[in-house]
Amino acid sequence: MKERIHLFRESLKLVWRSAPGWATVNVILSVFRSFFPLVLVWLLKILIDNITTAASSGTGFPVYNIVWIIVAVAAAYFMDDASADFSSYVRKKQSMNLEAYMYNILHTKAISLDLLNFERPEYFDRLARASREAPWRPNNILNNLVSMLKGALSLILMAGLLAFLHWAIVLLLLAINIPGIWLRLYYAGLIYNFQRKQTPEARKAAYFNWLLTGDRPSREMRLFGLGKYFISLFRKSFLKTKEEELNIVRKRALIELITDFLKASAVFLILLFIANRTINGKLTIGEMAMYLVAFRQGMVYIKELFISLASLYEDSLFIGDVFEFLSLKERVVPMPPVTVPSVMENGITVENLAFTYPGNTFRAIDNVSFEIHKGEIIALVGPNGAGKSTLAKLLCRLYDPDSGSVRYDGVDIRNMDPENYRKFISVVFQDFMLYNLGAGENIRLGSIDEEKPGEKIVEAAKITGVHDLIKDLPEGYSTMIGNLFDNSRELSWGEWQKIALSRALFRNAPILILDEPSSALDAETEFEIFSRFREIVKGRTSIFISHRFTNVNLADRIIVLEKGTIAEAGTHKELMGRKGKYFSMYTKQSGRFEK
Ligand code: ADP
User: Fold this and answer.
1) Of 122, 368, 389, 394, best ligand 1 pocket probe by most atoms within 8 Å of the beta carbon
2) How confident is the model at residue 594 (pLDDT cuts 50, 70, 90)?
3) Separation of 225 CA from ligand 1 center, angstroms?
4) Residue 89: which region, alpha, beta or left (left: phi > 0; alpha: psi -120 to 50)?
5) Is residue 123 lining ligand 1, measured as CB closer than 6 Å?
6) From residue 428, how far is each of 41, 159, 273, 381 by CA, in Å?
7) I need a surface site. Which of 161, 341, 421, 492 has the fewest CB within 10 A?
8) From atom 10 of ligand 1, which residue's Cα is the shortest distance away?
9) pLDDT tens digits for 518-565?
10) pTM for this structure?
11) Pocket of ligand 1 contains residue 389 by CB under 6 Å
12) pLDDT 10s digits, 217-256
């Protein structure tokens, strides 16, 4: 309970911060609106009594005091409806502000989280739950609290009125609603647990849906004729989530029937009572109508009140997911003593580095030590799964090692703010990004704060040889590339790779890491780029990963990784002379090409 109240408080703080003015208007309006129903039933009573008197005395129409009462009733109806319309606008406005605010918080959290989170399914489940709930749940809490306040006020007023008739009616009103509230609370818990359990299955269904409708899978889907197969997988996942939910809802509907029967019996009793009193002349027709409406309204308010209460309970369960996500801790943070890095003077030292992916039983990097001097070009080679990409990510401090260290000019990079440190690094990852934006902008993203990017973008494009292509596009560097938006031009994978390379070069960082930078380039372009490699990297300290040994021999030093450890290191000549792992890989590959 304490935890729930804490969650409510936190949620209300979010609502307040996102739109304090609108939140206040929302609450005031709701309180104001809770008085209308009482005014209406009271006016109704006066109206009916006046009409019955007029009808029995035969004064004829119009009777002015009756007309005035009718005007008052109409005005009250209008005010009630108008304030409801205005209130719904206020709620919309407020929830819009909150939505934008919550997305901002979610996105800020998502970009600051450790990369490792993105490689675990639990993270995506958490993110899916949080982004499903965050934009609207806090507002729901506020609205439910306000509805509760409004419902409670209206109910007290109506109950006060009914108490004039008989206190037992108030008691009956409350008693017949108790099973309903219990039911709602019980099922709110059930549905929450069910949905939590279902997140992985729902993600699976969403994934199959993407396979069937997405752009990337569309080619294989057709070629391998996989459509029907994935349609059946989607159906299975989808129905599995829905059928269980339906089961819960079905059971709830059955029990609700019983409570509805209870309520109908209560209405029966009250009607008998009121009819009896009216016939016996203890109530006027107007009073009869007033009490009937008041009882009906009382039932509605009590139901609304309990629904709000049950929704609040449900909110407290779901909002927990949002705060659970927001409270995920980043571990890749600057550790004291914090040092602000400056441009590299000496180089990078890797010392006894070890790293294990969570959930794995083996080390992806195991006791690796080497040095990279300023301005050196290092090639990382080794079979698939040797740990090359992992090592590159450790050098960027996308992960922190289990033990050992990466030192930048002698300082452990864990003592630096990762954002500051990464300013000195530029990377082309193996799975580099394709941005569905302008061609020039795709390059500019490498250094978004660059003040006068124009010429430098062209320069970076010229170095990788993609300038001619961009220049000939319909709108040159402003042409949208990709296939997501209208008027955009799709590029070949190799052309995208050149753009990614240009983006990395546009970032004027002293360290350049290239993970298979030429995997999609044609032989000619690849040769072109690697034969000018030194000119391209312009003295940057460079580490590149490559499968092709013809490119590797241009490096100052080659590090051969195998199963996470360094098998050999040295210049091409040294390694060939050693006739070890490198020699055998090199001769196998060059032999294959010579055949
Ligand atoms: P390489 O780049 O040399 O092909 P990687 O660095 O990608 O190798 O992978 C090294 C080892 O770590 C492999 O055994 C791979 O299966 C494992 N690995 C890579 N990424 C992950 C991950 N996100 N989670 C768990 N294991 C991983």
Assistant:
1) 389
2) very low
3) 31
4) alpha
5) no
6) 72, 71, 82, 16
7) 492
8) 387
9) 777 777 778 878 888 888 888 899 999 988 887 888 899 999 999 999
10) 0.78
11) yes
12) 888 888 888 999 999 999 999 998 888 888 888 888 888 8
Angstrom distance (rounded) from CA 58 to CA 388 = 101
Q: Where are the domains of the chain?
A: 2-326, 345-424+511-522+540-595, 430-508
330 secondary structure, DSSP code: P
First-residue to last-residue Cα distance in the chain:
76
CA of 208 to the centre of ligand 1 (A): 25
Q: Is 432 exposed, middle or buried (0-12, 13-18, 19+ CB in 10 A)?
A: buried
**Does the domain formed by 345-424+511-522+540-595 have CATH 3.40.50.300?**
yes
The reported pLDDT for the residue numbered 595 is 42
Q: Is 120 touching ligand 1 by the criterion CB < 6 Å?
A: no
Does 327 contact ligand 1 (Cβ within 6 A)? no
What percent of the chain lies above the pLDDT cut of 70? 99
Residue 168, both tokens: 């037992």
3-state secondary structure 27-70: HHHHHHHCCHHHHHHHHHHHHHHHHHHHHHHCCCCCCHHHHHHH
Q: Do domains 345-424+511-522+540-595 and 430-508 have the same CATH topology?
A: yes
CA of 364 to the centre of ligand 1 (A): 6
| 236 contact partners, CB below 8 Å, separation of at least 6 | none
In the CATH scheme, what is the homologous superfamily, with its name and number, of domain 2-326?
A: ABC transporter type 1, transmembrane domain (1.20.1560.10)
